[in-house]
Design a protein that fits this description.
The protein is α/β, with parallel strands linked by helices. It is built from 9 helices and 9 strands. The protein binds zinc ion (ZN).
Length: 270
């Protein structure tokens, strides 16, 4: 299980530096090609770990929950938005609970939506202060810390409790994310089922893609406020599909020791 904040956020520096120094020494003393391969290979590994959302090389990341029953963890990114209230209505109709990964500045602009999410028993997660989707993967340590800490401060004030989950923008967590998460006690969360619904407007296609990763304990990634304007319809289609397949949407509870327990069984719409 990887449901915990990073313990050794700078551990990568040790193996990365050792490989770079080893590579230079190898080039000088023994094999030019081997040394170069070692240097470039470890750099490529670091780059891959940044770009691959489920990579555990740089920090622990939750990809799926242990589950004995047919339940999934629904996570909704990028809010709050003009869709939030309609999404909350939908979730209530299906007796489903979700975690909303909110952007700090969007939450500050619409605090009443954050309050409503919390009031209805859903959870709040940290999804950065300003959602810099083009550059989040490349942010240096200070800017990364500011993105995560600022959002944590805003969301804690609005929700009344500090979020314990963090989702990297576009899922890309570079080597400096772990050091920003550790002091805030944040655990990084990825997913094992996604529908690419931030771009995809066709709910059938989104449901088909989600189905590929659907299994007990799956973490589902969905979005609200997508530019195509179909987020509410898409989330509705996914909820219908989940109910038909006998899945409930619950929040991580007793299966993760010490984490917030807040579950509800999903049902067909009333
Ligand atoms: Zn996002």
């Amino acid at each position: 299980m990887y449901a915990r904040p990073p313990r050794y956020p700078w551990a990568w520096v040790v193996w990365f530096s050792a490989a770079q120094i080893g590579g230079v020494l190898a080039m000088a003393c023994f094999s030019w090609a081997f040394g170069l391969a070692l240097i470039l290979g470890t750099q490529a590994l670091l780059f891959w770990a940044t770009l691959w959302p489920q990579s555990r090389l740089l920090s622990p990341v939750l990809v799926q929950l242990p589950a004995s029953a047919r339940s999934v963890w629904l996570t909704i990114d990028d809010g709050p938005s003009d869709d939030t209230l309609a999404v909350l209505e939908l979730l209530d109709r299906y007796a489903a609970k979700a975690c909303f990964f909110l952007v700090g500045e969007r939450a500050a602009a619409q605090p009443q939506l954050v309050a409503e999410i919390v009031r209805r028993g859903h959870e709040i997660g940290n999804h950065s202060a300003t959602h810099p989707e083009k550059w989040f993967w490349a942010l240096p340590p200070r800017a990364m810390r500011a993105q995560i800490a600022l959002a944590q401060q805003t969301l804690t004030a609005l929700a009344g409790y500090p979020p314990r989950w963090f989702r990297a923008v576009v899922g890309m967590a570079n080597p400096f994310v772990a050091a920003a998460l550790k002091p805030l006690g944040l655990t990084r969360v990825a997913w094992c089922a996604r529908g690419f619904d931030a771009r995809e407007a066709d709910s059938e296609r989104v449901v088909a893609r989600i189905s590929l990763g659907l299994r007990p304990g799956a973490i589902l990634l969905l979005h609200e406020g997508a530019p195509h304007g179909r987020s509410v319809a898409i989330i509705g289609a996914v909820l219908t599909h989940l109910a038909r397949e006998g899945y409930s949407c619950t929040l991580p509870g007793c299966e993760l020791d010490g984490l917030r327990s807040n579950t509800a069984a999903a049902a067909e719409p009333k």
